[in-house]
Amino acid sequence: MFSSMGNEYISGQQIAQELGCSRQAIWKAMDELRQDGFEIEAIRRKGYRLIGNSDQFSKSELLYQLNTSHIGQVIELYESVSSTQIIAHEKAKDGAKHGTVIMAEEQTSGRGRMTRQWSSPKNTGIWMSTILRPTIHPQEAPPITLVVAVAIAQSIEELTGIIPTIKWPNDILVGSKKIAGILTELQSEMDVIHYMIIGTGINVNTEEFPEELKSIASSLLIETGEKQSRVKLAQLIWEKVEKLLDIYEKHGFAPIKLLWESYVQSIGQEIQARTLQGTYQGIMRGITDKGVLELELSNGRIVPIYSADIEI
Ligand code: BTN
After folding, report:
1. Briefly, what is this protein's role (predicted)?
2. Has 125 been labeled as part of a binding site?
3. Does residue 109 share a domain with residue 130?
């Protein structure tokens, strides 16, 4: 109703006529929108005007014009949780559908990769865990993290015009600072995936980071100088994840790999890969069709790296 209005007032009568309902129904709908977090000004003889959305997520806004079949069609929204990953695991075990998203305005114990913490201050970012039930073999699961990294990079580019880079396997950076990270957790048996949880943390409107993160983390607000729509960004990500997952399931990783390489940092550069088995130094040659990083050591040997922290 408000999407085509710009910043103007629209009378209750006009809305009622256009939608073919009573003035009373409009009044009730405005009330519900306000409860959902929309700021709507109402002035006698002028009508209603959408001032802006508050800093709260609302399900109706997240679902409005969302162009997906599954991802984001079921949303569970929380004010404050320890970690959306924990809730997503519980919901998945209870049978939550493919594409269900658990979101929170704040996480008190957000989890990062390699048992790190993930800072998730209130109302500033997108802290969400998506439950996926892909119809693939467990061995085909690791590239899904890279699929999601591409979807996030494309969405940030579309929303802000900034071209982010991807640092293998799944950090999204602007310049040298991290904007987003992905934590993938898999519940499977030898032959079957029960479910995957894709945890995504995106620093959208964070104004300032704690001292220890200042030199390594940034937000879209800091990088663009403007507050960004968390709702629009979440919708873009869901739409792109759904599209890219479909490509991956039908055609394998090769088409996604090309997209991933267009955002990736450091191919052909000297890097250090810190793995649980030890640290390797060499030239990053690229990734395989399974998403595994290939590192060329000084003796010319190529080592496959499955999981690591990369230093450039
Ligand atoms: C990383 O880069 O280390 C991954 C960070 C993942 C953070 C997200 S925020 C939503 C979800 N819940 C968590 O506790 N972690 C992930």
Report:
1. Acts both as a biotin--[acetyl-CoA-carboxylase] ligase and a repressor.
2. no
3. yes
pTM score: 0.85
For the sheet with 293-296, list strands across it: 302-305, 293-296, 278-287, 270-275, 309-311
Which atom of ligand 1 approaches the CA of 178 most closely? 2
Residue 81's domain is classified under what CATH number? 3.30.930.10
Q: How far is the CA of 85 from the centre of ligand 1 (A)?
A: 8
Specify whether 94 is located in the same domain as 171: yes
Per-residue pLDDT of the chain (312 residues; tens, 9 = 90+): 554 444 578 999 999 998 999 999 999 988 888 877 677 888 888 888 876 566 789 898 899 899 999 999 999 999 999 999 999 999 999 999 999 999 999 999 999 998 899 999 999 999 999 999 999 999 999 999 999 999 999 999 999 999 999 998 889 999 999 999 999 999 999 999 999 999 999 999 999 999 999 999 999 999 999 999 999 999 999 999 999 999 999 999 999 999 999 999 888 999 999 988 899 999 999 999 888 999 999 999 999 998 888 887
Rounded (10°) CA dihedral 130, 89, 254, 173: 60
Same domain, 235 and 302: no
How many Å lie between the centroid of ligand 1 and the Cα of residue 201? Answer: 5
Does residue 233 lie in a domain region?
yes
Same domain, 92 and 45: no
Q: Is the CB of 181 under 6 A from ligand 1?
A: yes
- Is 169 touching ligand 1 by the criterion CB < 6 Å? no
257 known member of a binding site: no
Could you tell me where the beta strands, DSSP code E, fall in the chain?
Answer: 38-43, 47-53, 75-81, 101-107, 125-132, 165-167, 171-174, 177-188, 193-203, 270-275, 278-287, 293-296, 302-305, 309-311
20 part of a folded domain: yes
In a domain, 300, yes or no: yes
Alpha carbon nearest to ligand 1 atom 15, residue: 111
Is residue 117 within 8 Å of residue 93, measured between CB atoms? Answer: no
